[in-house]
Description:
The chain has 475 residues and is α/β, with parallel strands linked by helices.
Amino acid sequence: MARFFVLGLDGVPPELLFEKWSSELPNIRGLMERGAYAGLDSTIPPASIIAWSSFASGRDASELGIYSYTRRNPETGRTELVNSTDVRADLIWDILSKKGMRSIVLFVPLTFPAKKINGIMVTDFLTPGIDSNCCYPAELKEYIKTLGNMELFFDVAGFTEYKGLEPGLLLQNAYKMTEMHVSLIKHLLQTEKYDFFMAVLLGTDRVQHMLWKYFDKQHRHYEDSKLSGELLDFYRFIDRKVGEILALLDSDTTVIMASDHGMKGTEGKINLNDWLVDNGYLVLKDSSRREVEENRKKGRQTKLVFEGIDFSMTRAYSIGAYHARIFINSRARSPEGILDERQRLELIGELKSRLSRLRSDTGRALDTKFFLAKDIYKSASSRECPDMIVYFDNLVWSSNPDLGNSSLYSWKTAVGADCAGHAPKGFFIISGRGIKPAGRIGDVDIHSITPTILSMMGINVPGLEGKRIKIVEAD
């Protein structure tokens, strides 16, 4: 039976790994040459907590019950962050635990708070700190505290605060965080037994969001500076760390490397909730409207929160950066809903028509994509499920959910500015025990990874049949 080691590189696009920088990354290239590799079709939308949860379960967002970083508490009506207790489906380590198999799970998005598994778990970038429920078993914290600066252990800064960091400091923090993460991976590889080991390195995502415009000469906001070579240097650093990890794996291990989504340069932000307010679709409570105006006078944006929406007058609102999740305030969704099903469908059509006509700040037509919930989710009836997802200019323009902007366009959100957003295509590599060298095998779907691993481990899970990747396995 195969034993698996899975290493995630958050946000890494295939074009950098397989093409542009392949010659600079000998350890990753060696994995590709010894096995099979592919582009990876991410979830819709390509958000990290959704994508990694789908990667680790084979389930879509509606089966997982996770659509966004935030949710509306049905009892209080207030906005709150989602966490691992909101995930409704078994993840691969849950399945393996029930089979008596041991897993080590490190830094996988949406694992906070840590759950009891047959093995070890250390949680992700949504973790508030080392003194929280971030480890199972809890005594692992004492070793982690020996690794370095605990303020940087889970992320380069607090949740979304990395967008406000100066690029040099961001890089410094990303290196330190990654060193700590890899030290823990290597320690556990040398001291613990496992059937399944999965770790996700976050630094690639953080660095790309903030440094993309310094290396991409086609970027609208390209800057030629001393930072221009830093992204490639970080990739070289990651490749060296991959080499250190691979040196600790034996010949009985099947290795998977993958990302949850890709990355692409962005031109700016479409201030969608401001547009919805201006066009009468979204109505704020008086207190929220006053807050937006006061912040606007000070040159600040205001984050949209559920408790600031007047649901008795609102027909639609949006949540989500990079991509827009549009919710129609229908009676079927909520007791506060004001639209019936016919009105809901008419409004979806109306919004799709109007938003498709939006242009860039220079007047350029946008290649905007629309995805209806019924077309992309197995179960689209829950209150938390968006009615429609929008990729402005196929994600070249991001959606900005924050309020109080002076026009339809902006270059930052309430938490800061970045120059790249998530792209729908990640990467996938499989090598090692049981895999013949097969080269490029086209593209694979993110929902097929867990079914493939489980199948190779001799485990069948109802509902995941037929999703396995066709890989040339060794005899």
